[in-house]
Amino acid sequence: MDSGLTNLRLKWLGIDTQKEFVVYMRSDCPVCISEGFEALTRVMVRVGNTTIIATLNVIHSDLLARDEASLSTSAWNKLEAREGDEIHFSHLQPAQSMSRVRAKIYGETLERGDYDQIIADIIDHKYSTPELAAFVTSCAGERLQLDEIIALTRAMVSTGSRLQWNREIIADKHCVGGLPGNRTTPIIVAIAAVAGLAIPKTSSRAITSPAGTVDTMETMAPVNLSMDHVRQVVEQVGGCVVWGSGVNLSPADDILIGVERALDIDSEGQMIASVLSKKVAAGSTHVVIDMPVGPTAKVRTPEAAQQLSRYFELVADAIDLKVKVILTEGIQPVGRGIGPALEAADVLSVLRNDQDAPDDLRQRSLMLAGSLLELTGQAAEGDGPARADAILRSGKAWEKFYAICEAQGGFRIPGKAPYTREIKAGHSGFILSIDNRRLAKVAKLAGAPHDPTAGLMLQAVPGHRVESGQPLFTVHAETRGTLEYALEYIDTQPDILEITS
């Protein structure tokens, strides 16, 4: 298929499709006509000696000439393309593993080999976006059996890079999410590193929340580090907080997370495989898992938490990880800020031992850090929180965190949003409850996590009395438009914070 009739010239359009590879051609170009390509066809694309699989988007305008094609930025970078390069096309055979995905959709239990093939095809970009969505959906709603979660985890571990360390113990911590503002990780990493542990913390960006650990950390330091840079940072200062995608750990997970984010789905089985595969890929040996439980948290009941904890521990045991799951309160947000920069401000206030630092964030961080110290043998059973507290009070945790930021590329102060609006109580009374999910939606409508300074600052919590007109929370936004989106939603949700009459 290298004849002049079916080769096109590349033109740069600068279209961002995240990680999805997309190729753009006119409907009347020689390739579309001769090969019968239609919109959303999956095609093999070659520039020079590099080949990728991309989804075709058809253009019905003069944006491209008949002999021109373009690529999404991710595809352009992958192919190391230059404007004017010749681009070649060929047909793609359907991914054979899709037959096993269809089997899963109809209720079959898949084997290890099935998941190996599925994950391999996902890594090779053989799945279209609808096919990825089908796989994600087929695994949702407790449809994965324990053996399947183990098989999926192992398949994800076997792809991508793995960090190797010259230590017997590599510590880590993870939160299953669902609780706004629960940004304990940077504090725990700093405390653990002071205690002498190696803790190379790799995280994903937010999936369904207003901020993930990486989104928050990025407001204070660079997070997109190479694998060599990660090793250098950990060897130099003992810990890091970086984006897992930057070091190519469990790359299938990064692809699946993009689909989960779009669908607003966080499947329990895939979550376990996602978390534990990245821990193994990062070289972790001992992991503490924070599992908030509450009626509007991700895990809603103690019964669901017990089952999920058991699965985490069984899968971890199967892949030689030492895991301790800790059930924590998930009734209300942690700290005051919700959104990357606002949560970073809370983290810094705790690390610096500020008098007005949110005590709930401080206490939760100490409890989890203490558990990690006990799990790794750095503290006797029951003594972990006290040792963590001593490290934090001494100021050494703040010094360590600053050193980590500097080693990752330089510490910076989180920014502030230009637009804010106070949301006030309509009447006096006691706050009975907070709906975590709807409060998180306010922050997302305000622009978080895409806009790092967007989100909200909480000024009242359950159990406190408020007077009519007293601020409940303040919405922060980077544009007037996103502020209005959040305010319009708030107007339709008067009981996000339920107040007694």
User: For the residues shown, what is the average pLDDT?
Assistant: 92
> Which stretches are low in confidence, meaning pLDDT under 50 for 5 or more residues running?
none
CATH topology of the largest domain: Pyrimidine Nucleoside Phosphorylase, Chain A, domain 2
Tally of distinct domains: 3
Rg measurement, Å: 24 Å
**Name of the CATH first level of the largest domain:** Alpha Beta
Which structural class do the helices and strands define? alpha/beta
Q: How many β-strand stretches?
A: 18
CATH superfamily (homologous) name of the largest domain: Nucleoside phosphorylase/phosphoribosyltransferase catalytic domain
Global morphology: globular
- Compute the separation of the termini in Å: 74 Å
Tell me the CATH architecture of the largest domain.
3-Layer(aba) Sandwich
Helical segment tally? 18
* Spatial strand order of the main sheet: 1-5-2-4-3-6
The helix content, as a percent range, equals 25-40%
Could you describe the 3D structure shown?
This protein has helices at 30-35, 73-78, 98-105, 112-123, 129-138, 146-157, 185-194, 213-217, 227-237, 251-263, 268-281, 302-318, 340-351, 359-375, 384-393, 396-408, 436-445, 480-491, and strands at 8-10, 22-26, 42-47, 50-59, 68-71, 86-91, 171-175, 199-203, 239-243, 286-293, 322-329, 337-338, 419-424, 429-434, 455-458, 465-466, 471-477, 497-499. With 501 residues, it is of the alpha/beta class. It has 3 domains: 4-91, Barwin-like endoglucanases (Beta Barrel); 171-247 and 276-408, 3-Layer(aba) Sandwich (Pyrimidine Nucleoside Phosphorylase, Chain A, domain 2); 419-499, Alpha-Beta Complex (Aldehyde Oxidoreductase, domain 3). It has a 6-stranded mixed barrel with strand order 1-5-2-4-3-6. Strands 12-15-17-13 form a 4-stranded antiparallel sheet. It has a 3-stranded parallel sheet with strand order 7-10-11, with helices on both faces. Strand 3 and strand 4 form a beta hairpin. The protein is globular and about 70 Å long.
